[in-house]
């Protein structure tokens, strides 16, 4: 393939460049151009995933969705500038808001996101969960329509929480968790600027959990039940519960900050809290099932399963300690 002539660092450079252009641009067209550079640089990274048969399908879906969203976004801008800004700006803002939410994979435009995640390796999945969301979120914070964004934020929080209940795939669990967290971030965006703090801590917890899945080679949660290393299950589920926002783990810190900001918006806060409780419910249920299933497998085998040395144990221990002890230093931060 022609893509093989270029090392991944080249595409990584243009991914960073596209995001930097969006963040530093003072015009809408410059921001749009940065997002397009970012899009075209991310596609080869998906195609270079030779170990996953779904990478080609994921590439086509990702390109079509992002291209359509970009077309809607630039159409909204042209519509506004064509009339010289004399018309009410709500219509263009609605179009731009919908397009950026589609790029972020928010409900009800979320159907492509879990399917694309299935076709990625862990490096690509981590980029899609974190870095690829920076530019659309920054643009959304500048051009959003308040009522539309609130509706989509609450829809994302609930749909992301409910859809992950029956998913056995670790990549899809991360995808639906991302959809739910985008609901929290965009709902906070409508009332405060602490969404940037929330997004930073979300990226940190996602990096820790993706590294845990990557190093332990866990693609489905059933695989954890057959692992005789109890440390592996402990590491995965501590980081998973941190991503869900269970106190006193690090993932609870940004949600506590959102509680303080949205204390007067009880309706929005109640829906967000309810969605978070649903997420924690099936995370805890997966933890209990995996530990009990391991005991069942061991008893049927008639002996204790043979333990193997855990790869990257020290790295996994360090990143897990960040999830456990992260609330101590981060609690001193004034959001």
From TrEMBL:
Protein family per UniProt: Belongs to the complex I subunit 2 family.
Annotated organism of origin: Megabalanus tintinnabulum
Superkingdom of origin organism: Eukaryota
GO cellular component annotations of the record: mitochondrial inner membrane
Localization, UniProt: Mitochondrion inner membrane
Domain NADH:quinone oxidoreductase/Mrp antiporter transmembrane span(s) in chain numbering: 27-279
A Pfam entry, by short name: Proton_antipo_M
PANTHER family on file: NADH-UBIQUINONE OXIDOREDUCTASE CHAIN 2
Recorded coiled-coil stretches: none
Main location (coarse class): mitochondrion
Biological process annotations from GO: mitochondrial electron transport, NADH to ubiquinone
UniProt protein name: NADH-ubiquinone oxidoreductase chain 2
Keyword NAD: yes
EC number: 7.1.1.2
MF GO annotations: NADH dehydrogenase (ubiquinone) activity
Enzyme class (EC, first level): translocase
Source organism phylogeny: Eukaryota, Metazoa, Ecdysozoa, Arthropoda, Crustacea
């Amino acid at each position: 393939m022609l893509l093989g002539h270029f090392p991944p660092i080249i595409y990584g450079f243009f991914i960073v460049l596209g995001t930097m252009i969006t963040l530093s641009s003072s015009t809408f067209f410059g921001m749009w151009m940065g997002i397009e550079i970012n899009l075209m640089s991310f596609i080869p990274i998906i195609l270079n995933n030779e170990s996953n048969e779904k990478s080609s399908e994921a590439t086509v879906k990702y390109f079509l969705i992002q291209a359509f969203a970009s077309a809607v976004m630039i159409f909204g801008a042209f519509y506004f500038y064509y009339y010289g800004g004399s018309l009410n700006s709500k219509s263009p803002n609605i179009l731009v808001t919908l397009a950026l939410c589609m790029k972020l994979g928010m409900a009800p435009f979320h159907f492509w996101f879990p399917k694309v995640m299935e076709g990625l390796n862990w490096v690509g999945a981590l980029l899609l969960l974190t870095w690829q969301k920076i530019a659309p979120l920054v643009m959304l914070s500048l051009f959003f329509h308040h009522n539309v964004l609130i509706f989509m934020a609450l829809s994302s929080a609930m749909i992301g929480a409910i859809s992950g209940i029956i998913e056995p795939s670790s990549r899809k669990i991360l995808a639906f968790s991302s959809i739910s967290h985008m609901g929290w971030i965009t709902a906070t965006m409508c009332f405060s600027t602490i969404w940037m703090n929330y997004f930073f801590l979300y990226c940190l917890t996602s990096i820790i959990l993706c590294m845990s899945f990557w190093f332990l080679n866990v693609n489905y949660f059933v695989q954890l039940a057959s692992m005789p290393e109890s440390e592996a299950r402990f590491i995965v589920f501590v980081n998973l519960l941190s991503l869900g926002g269970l106190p006193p783990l690090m993932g609870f810190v940004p949600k506590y900050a959102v509680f303080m900001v949205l204390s007067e918006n009880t309706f929005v806060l109640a829906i967000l809290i309810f969605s978070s409780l649903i997420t924690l419910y099936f995370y805890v249920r997966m933890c209990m099932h995996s530990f009990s299933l391991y005991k069942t497998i061991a008893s049927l085998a008639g002996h204790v399963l043979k333990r193997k040395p855990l790869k990257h144990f020290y790295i996994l221990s360090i990143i897990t300690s960040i999830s456990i002890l992260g609330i101590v230093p981060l609690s001193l931060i004034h959001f």
